[in-house]
Amino acid sequence: MPSVITVTADDLALPLEDQVMRTSATLDAFGHIVALAPDDPADPARRRLHTVRSALEADRIAIVPLALPPLARTLLGEQLRQLSGTDLGPGVLAGAARLLAHYLHSGALLGSVAKLDRIPVGVGAHVKSLVPGRHFAAIAHPEPYLGPADPASVPPGPAYQTQLAMAGTGLDASWITGPLATAWRTQHVREVPLQPDAAAWWGTARLVEFTAYIADVGMLYQLVTSVRRDTCTWCGLEVIGDQCLFCATRLTRGTAAKHAAAPSGRAVETPRRPQLEPHKR
Q1: Where is the composition biased (Basic and acidic residues) (predicted)?
Q2: Percentage of the residues of the chain whose pLDDT score is greater than 70
């Protein structure tokens, strides 16, 4: 069953009427849409998506809000596009967005943290931000971190094989391509365009965003298929997680109990995070 994966940002928005028409045509051509949206309910792009979904009265559009920086959200969309070429259905792909988000390590090299509100910023960091030439290393996901961009002070990264994407030209990125990439044991560093909403998300235009991600579609597929699947009792889609992200139907306790008694013995109501084999030092 074909699906389309989209990543939203307010700068990419079309006039509402055009967006409704294009979305309708896309549904006719591909069947389902999985849209990755910012986690802020007041975000204009996310609100517009809900308006379009309501106008079309379509339960074939899954809007997945994620608390990810712009680059990480874009790379997650890329991963889902890779998986859409496999045998995974739209309900599983929508749930996979939340699962695979756990395996993204995303941050930015910042020239200022004066307007950064996505992670905690202490008074000392605010003061240092006023000193010309100061660069800060900020991690927003999976755990918040803020410190100096110093070769001797690199934040913890993934314990499994990843590639590193970076975007932005506002600062010297040698700390990312050097100490960070080395400490995170990155296989490959890739430059991509800076997302339109990156400056607003990080509170400054002087930044280079970076994200470590799993590029191997085989590993992504293994992670997704290791999670228990259920069938939505309303729309009939195969899903992972405790809710169908297309029709919003939640798994009932009866459904969960039935699966708990199944021979597989995997009695869980929500996806568990599979463990990846760590690098050998």
Answers
A1: 269-281
A2: 80
